[in-house]
Amino acid sequence: MRTLIRSAAALAAAGLALTPTAAAAAPTPSPGAATVTKAGTSFLTATTITPGQPVRVDASTGDHLYWSFRAEAGEVHEVTATVSFGGKAHTGPSTWTVDVFDGLRRRQACTAGAQTPTAAATATGVTLGCTLRRVRPWAEPWSGDPLPGTYYLRLSVTDLPEADLGLPVEVDLLVGADTAGGGSGDDGELAAPLVANTRAGTVLTAEPAPEPVADEESAFSGWLPEPGSRWVWTGAGGMLAAVAGVVGFALTRRPRRR
After folding, report:
1. Strand partners, 100
2. 157: Cβ contacts below 8 Å, ≥ 6 apart
3. Secondary structure class of 71 (helix, strand, coil)
């Protein structure tokens, strides 16, 4: 115990502290990146952004905002978002959430960050964050591990007083990509990035041609069973049983006396 105390004192004297590993620095915008000023309202209309590209949009409380970005193998993505209430008074607390989905619309878990914070009624804003797992080059389909492809972000409010719906808010969002730490040691590579199939089907402009109708069967053959059906075998079996019964009776009956 004395040795541990002396070691701690020596570290303190050297300017070191016995604290947990510091969290990774927040992502910073890429130099010269244009600011995105819009967001989609669904997966199909999600606005495309790139890691390091800042986002600033005006929205209303209750909107579901969607963005999409490209993820490559070996990257660790960190999402930070700030929702400013613009000085408008709220009648009660509100809970916000940022969700991340991969190319197959599977929800990806966050390893760090305030993914679902609650803002008090007197708060002027709320900050959200989500650090994803490292993107793997290959994985089993059932594992749910993050794989290369298109990822989707959804920012929304999950709980708030009904009277606060529609109040104006300002959203600042940024996605950072970190490749430090190297790629995964898995053997294998994904054949193609995971991208949801959003291609619509072909629209028919003309009425489809009807299928050709088979020739009408004659009145006699219409009720006959098909060759090889169970009705044919049942009938043949019945006839054989009747013949066998007659032959057996003829062989076993006693001759009549004259």
Report:
1. 108, 153
2. 61, 62, 94, 95, 96, 97
3. strand
Contact 52, 75 (CB under 8 A): no
Confidence (pLDDT) at 221: 55
Q: How far is CA 131 from CA 5, 76, 80, in A?
A: 36, 7, 9
| Residues sharing a CB contact under 8 Å with residue 208, sequence separation 6 or more, in sequence order | none
Residue 113, C-beta contacts closer than 8 angstroms, at least 6 positions apart: 78, 79, 80, 128, 129, 130, 131
**Residue 231: its pLDDT value, please?**
75
**Distance between CA 186 and CA 73 in Å, rounded?**
11
Report pLDDT digits (tens) over 72-98. Answer: 999 999 999 999 998 777 899 999 999
Q: How far is Cα 104 from Cα 148, in angstroms, rounded to an integer?
A: 11
- 59 and 40 in contact (C-beta within 8 Å)? no
Q: How many CB atoms within 10 Å of residue 78?
A: 23
Instruction: Give CA–CA dist 90/166, Å, rounded.
Output: 11
Q: Where are the beta strands (DSSP E) in 13-116?
A: 47-48, 55-60, 65-71, 76-84, 94-101, 107-108, 110-112
Distance set, CA 211 to CA 201, 207, 216 (Å): 22, 12, 15
225, 231 Cβ separation under 8 angstroms: yes
Amino acid letter, 186: D
Pairing of strands 107-108, 149-159: unpaired
Identify the CA nearest to 92 among candidates 70, 118, 72: 118
